[in-house]
Amino acid sequence: MSQIPPEREKLLHTTDLVVALIILAICGVLYYVTTTFEEVSAMLAQNVPPEFVPQLVIIIIAILTLGIPFEHLLHKRRGGNIDSERSDRIKRMPYVTAGLLIVLVVGIPYLGMLLTMIGICAILPLLWGERRLKLIIPFAILFPLAVAYLFNKILLVFFEPGVLGIAL
After folding, report:
1. Which pLDDT score, from 0 to 100, does residue 59 have?
2. Largest CA distance in the chain
């Protein structure tokens, strides 16, 4: 790709604009899907309707996506070129991470949400090369417990206990 003179630099990066539009379209479809969730009785609603959290996540993703077409301007200010960084092939680690997360998420009905979060918080840092167990172990235990406390005690949203996690 040729370098664009500063006076002719585009405000929007074309490739990033296409990616952002695809992500926004997916967000729109997923948001629509959340509007089709069945109504939960007041006794089981747990103070939060079932569509609230997915819609919140989708809205946050959509808001963050709006910045993608402008990211090249930040790279240029730092003296870099966003396209040169993208010329390398994607390494295997993102695929390994995605595969591991898929396996763990599929295991939620058996392990339960809390044990799954502990597993993710313990395995991912090891997979990514962190070897300081004195950091990993407290993180793998305290972070999921904090998340569970936030949802269970403050938001009154209860996680799937799973077959193995019922005792927890």
Report:
1. 95
2. 65
Q: Is residue 94 a contact partner of residue 60, using CB atoms and an 8 Å limit?
A: no
What is the pLDDT confidence band of residue 79, given thresholds at 50, 70 and 90? Answer: low
Label residue 156 left, alpha or beta by phi (over 0 means left) and psi (-120 to 50 means alpha): left
Q: Is the pLDDT of residue 9 over 80?
A: no
Report the 10 Å Cβ neighbour count for 18: 12
The C-alpha atoms of residue 45 and residue 80 are separated, in whole angstroms, by 50
Domain ranges of the chain: 8-88, 91-168
Enumerate helices (H) and strands (E) in the chain, giving the number of each: 9, 0
Kind and range of the H or E run holding 124 = helix 113-127
Q: Cα separation of 121 and 140, whole Å?
A: 5
Among all chains, which residue has been given the structure tokens 């793998």? 140
Predicted model pTM:
0.55
In the predicted structure, residue 38 carries a pLDDT above the cut 60: yes
CB-based contacts of 120: which residues, under 8 Å, 6+ apart? Answer: 101, 104
Total length of the chain: 168
- In this prediction, residue 8 carries a pLDDT of 47
Average pLDDT, the chain: 80
Neighbours of 140 (CB within 10 A): 21
